[in-house]
Amino acid sequence: MISKIPKWVGDLFGNAMRPNVKVLETSYISPQVKKIRFQGDISKWSFQIGYASVVRVSETEFRNYTVAYHDTKNGIFDIVFHIHGQGVGSKYIGTLQTNDELFISPPRGKILYDPSVKQQFFLGDETSLGVACALFLLLKKNNHQFQFYFELVEQNKSVPELLGLENFTVFPKNGSFRNEKWTSNLPLFKTEEWNAANFALVGNVKSVQTFRKVLKSKTQGNVYSQGYWLEGKKGL
């Protein structure tokens, strides 16, 4: 999905992109992590692990976010947003409050979860917390063995616990996951137990690329990856 369109295109498809959901409640998990519950007609939406919804953040700008929880019967869903810097998406999400209305598209994208594999591993950062929450619910329901690795800044290190996640390890966001040698020495690679796991890698493009390369050289499992952001690039 493109992240920006000319205003005349937005006006042309205005009816299709008119507000379709309403904010029910908001809360801050940390100063940079905001959870919002929305309500709308989601009866025809497909919620697959790895899918993302497009949020219209201005007349011409759109950003992708992952639904963390949904209840189709009651028409509600949650998104966990990473708010940082002065980007148009962060500023817009930061202003949302109860009863605001906006456009959010049905989820679509790339599936990251294979339910047939007993062992599941997930790598992510602040931008990946929503998909981690959605995945966690399925992992518990289907009795998987699982591990989460998160690279987070100091003020967000308690967020996974506050979101109710389990079996996670938090690493400081200091660039280590871009170092192949350092990554190769992680506990995950010290045993053959996880050799055939399902690996889902999301978040920073460079971290994902490095981790994927190490996985390919050390394991036989299936690797699913999706870069959510890259330094210097808007609207990835």
Characterize this entry briefly.
With 236 residues, the protein is an alpha/beta fold. 21% of the residues lie in helices and 33% in strands.
Describe this structure as you would to a colleague.
This protein has 6 helices and 13 strands. The protein has helices at residues 7-12, 88-95, 129-141, 159-162, 180-184, 205-218; strands at residues 21-30, 33-40, 51-56, 62-65, 67-71, 76-82, 101-102, 108-109, 119-124, 145-152, 168-172, 198-204, 222-229. The chain is globular. The N and C termini lie close together (9 Å). Pfam families: FAD_binding_6. GO terms for molecular function: oxidoreductase activity.
| N- to C-terminal distance | 9 Å
Query: Total number of β-strand segments?
Result: 13
Strand content: 25-35%
- Tell me the structural class: alpha/beta
| Overall morphology | globular
Major sheet: arrangement of strands:
5-6-2-1-7
In terms of per-residue confidence, which ranges show pLDDT below 50 for 5 or more consecutive residues? Answer: none
The number of helical runs is: 6
| Sheet having the most strands | 5 strands, antiparallel
* Rg of Cα set: 18 Å
What oligomeric assembly is this protein in? single chain
Give the proportion of residues in helices. 10-25%
Order of helices and strands: HEEEEEEHEEEHEHEHEHE
* Chain-averaged pLDDT: 91
Q: What are the salient characteristics of this protein?
A:
13 strands; 6 helices; 33% strand; 236 residues; 5-stranded antiparallel beta sheet; alpha/beta
